[in-house]
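A favour between colleagues. Tell me how you read the following sequence-structure pair.

===
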Amino acid sequence: MSDQAPRRFRVDNGFVGGAEGIVFGIVVFVFGILLMFNAWAVVDTKMAVSSAARETARTYVESDGSSAAAFDAGHNAFAATSNFDPTSLSAPQIDGEFRRCGRIDVTYTYTVPAISLPGGFGWGGGFEVTATHSELVDPFRSGLDGEALCDIP
């Protein structure tokens, strides 16, 4: 027998991987963050489009039936509550008859980009966000012909 201890070689038995696990984790993290930003962009846009529809309907009902001031109020409300481009907001669709007790419905549509980042950056087609708001024309307002024949709760 020899006085020397037996040599042991270092081996990597059981080594599975390392670098690719870190890369995969970073990729999952980045795509998760992008998904979170996109979900928030849809929620933020829904609130902004709802605000635009509400302000347009209220301004239209309180005006003399002209839509120019109502459109401006809607675009201003959208611009104030969103980071997205207000010029990309669809033209509002106004349904209803402007008369005493007439119900006016205003609908706006906006397409949120498929990939949205903070600051209004986005790419791709995306999700269509629609909001509708309804208002009644005041039955006792001046300047309109006819009687107020509606039931007011």
